[in-house]
Amino acid sequence: MEFKNFIDGSWEIGTDTTTNINPSDRFDTIGIAARSHAEQVNQAIDSAFEAASSWANTTPQQRFDILDFVGTEILARREEIGRLLSREEGKILTEGIGEVARAGQIFKFFAGEALRSNGDHLPSVRPGVDIDVIRQPLGVVGLITPWNFPIAIPAWKIAPALAYGNTVVFKPAELVPGCAYVLAEILSRSGLPDGVFNLVIGKGSVIGPQLIENKKISAISFTGSVPTGKSIAADCGARLKKVQLEMGGKNPMIVLDDADLDVAVEACLNGAFFSTGQRCTASSRLIVTEGIHDRFVSTLSDRMSKLIVGHALESTTQMGPVAEVSQLNQNLDYIEVARSEGGNVQGGERLSRDTDGYFMAPALITETNNNNRINREEVFGPIASVIRARDYEEALTIANDTPFGLAAGICTQSLKFASHFKKFSQAGMVMVNLPTAGVDYHVPFGGIKGSSFGAREQGTYAAEFYTSVKTAYVMP
Questions:
Q1: Which listed residue (89, 113, 246, 266) is catalytic?
Q2: Domain of 28: which CATH number?
Q3: Residues 229, 232, 238, 239: is their CA dihedral positive or negative?
Q4: Mean per-residue pLDDT, 446-464
Q5: Does 246 participate in catalysis according to the annotation?
Q6: d(Cα 429, Cα 421) in Å, to the nearest integer?
């Protein structure tokens, strides 16, 4: 299959191509993807700029119909697209189908948002003067997405951008062009005018600077690594260009003595190891108080060791492969670092299966402290470390002692501790007796500190980024 760019309503090849392979079986070629050259990126930006004014003036009904069409088709094809997603990213099939369904629901939600254009009509402090506060689209937005959620994250950027009247230049991660292509193909048949949505596949080093430096791009929304996010923030800041960043996490899950052991173990198993740990909201630091520590570690170790690791499309598989070989090698390197710092490592070894894929066993690292590298840096794999704490107060201090602040969780049966944690946890999203990973599509997503920068994503809060506010005074 050939995955092409979509520019100004036309499918375009690039200067060269890259091969899209299955991380469950590196001899399974999914397709050949175009690589955009700089001029094609400029063409996409120009087409989006030319289309911006007319698209901004479409009716809410027109935008609703288009987004609803996209959501309906994604949901109808969830199993087909989910299979493609699992082939190219490595999620197990149930997770792949679930992610596709979420993308469809996101488009449906923002179809409704297109009809709910909110504003304020206020009396002025001056007699006889009226004030209208309205939201208007930004113009052209550049969207840069990662490989770990190859259709859900594009959906929660593209859908609000279009719903609020912006035009789009979309750059997906080069590792997962298939889902981006399928999404673009559906959008191409949705009734969107030419130029409103553009897909440019290729290297971030080529496309990223073009999006940031071009004056016709009004805003950049980026999800990815911390170093790249910081660079984008600096470059956009120098140009006074609106920017939204979602970056890393080193998310804590506190387990208190009074926790329901089964609930805590299942929440940590899910949060740390499902989706092969390749979620920015994964529970990578398990902070466990003295009274439950040994029972918790023993039970979680047993449950983890029984997880079935294998080909993402096999019905019995519970954890798929790592998405790419460089990520696999990084995971294995971090395990060795943790071992060298005194950590006791269970699992974490490279695995052989019937197909040649990037398989590894999930790893649980005990006897660590919060100053170890494994607890300071995001690993982005199926690796969780355990930190022992005396009590809730020490556990909270450890949880907040991180440069990140995306998600945090606590397992407890105490309303007092749960309420205190919701208020004093330094994270943008807090879970009580639930995995840290897993956020509904209709609520805001994002964090604080080094995890996020700018307005929240998803839900009604998406309007904060994708629109600007205008205050208009009228003397009748």
A1: 246
A2: 3.40.605.10
A3: negative
A4: 97
A5: yes
A6: 11
